[in-house]
UniProtKB/TrEMBL annotation:
The protein's name: Crp/Fnr family transcriptional regulator
SUPFAM superfamilies from the UniProt entry: cAMP-binding domain-like
Residue intervals of the Cyclic nucleotide-binding domain: 35-121
InterPro entries given in the database record: cNMP-bd_dom (IPR000595), cNMP-bd_dom_sf (IPR018490), RmlC-like_jellyroll (IPR014710)
Length: 194
């Protein structure tokens, strides 16, 4: 099994390689953290305090409206950064929930420590900017899918981006992510060549 430090370093290098000194300073902020299945890490109305790095497990970020309708927005899993980034970066109350869907192991760093480190390590600020820009690009692509694609096209796009998603995410959450009733999800799977 790959060490958490190596997983983090591989992910960081994919976004924006850091010098050994910068990476060690960044890595020093992260502390191990574990959570059980279906544990709420951040709730709507709370300010996100942490940047999570997923070592193992599956999580989702979702929105819950006044009628208790859920909208699954993002899944995170091994080698992903997680948390409610807009709340963390703006230090404002979240509109979203971040929960584990399986037992999960993380490295997590507090916003306060990250913010302090940015003042002395410009390369880490570049890393965060590039990471957030990549996330923003993904959100724009998702908005196009939501507004223009059929359920089948959304599902095919999801499988192109994350071919392993069917093996790790319960189908009811995938149905919610695509925007269809869970009872229709098996019909969708059967209608598409995977």
């Amino acid at each position: 099994m790959t060490s958490p430090k190596l997983l983090l370093q591989q992910t960081v290098n994919h976004i924006h390689p850091l010098s050994e000194e910068d990476f060690e300073a960044f890595y020093a902020l992260f502390k191990p953290f574990s959570a059980k299945r279906k544990e709420m890490l951040t709730e709507a109305g709370c300010v996100e305090k942490y940047l999570y790095f997923v070592v193992d497990g599956l999580q989702r970020l979702y929105y819950l409206d006044e009628q208790n309708r859920e909208a699954t927005l993002v899944f995170s899993y091994q080698s992903n950064f997680g948390g409610i980034l807009d709340s963390m970066m703006n230090q404002t109350p979240s509109k979203y929930y971040y929960e584990t869907l399986s037992p999960s192991v993380f490295l997590r760093a507090s916003y306060t420590q990250i913010d302090e480190l940015l003042a002395t390590h410009p390369a880490i600020e570049v890393l965060l900017r590039k990471g957030l820009t990549g996330a923003f690009s993904g959100i724009l692509e998702r908005l196009v899918e939501l507004q223009c694609f059929s359920s089948e096209e959304k599902f095919q796009q999801l499988l192109r981006r994350s071919p392993h998603i069917l093996q790790i995410v319960p189908h009811k959450y995938l149905a919610n992510y695509i925007g269809i009733d869970p009872s229709n999800f098996s019909k969708l799977i059967n209608s598409i060549k995977i």
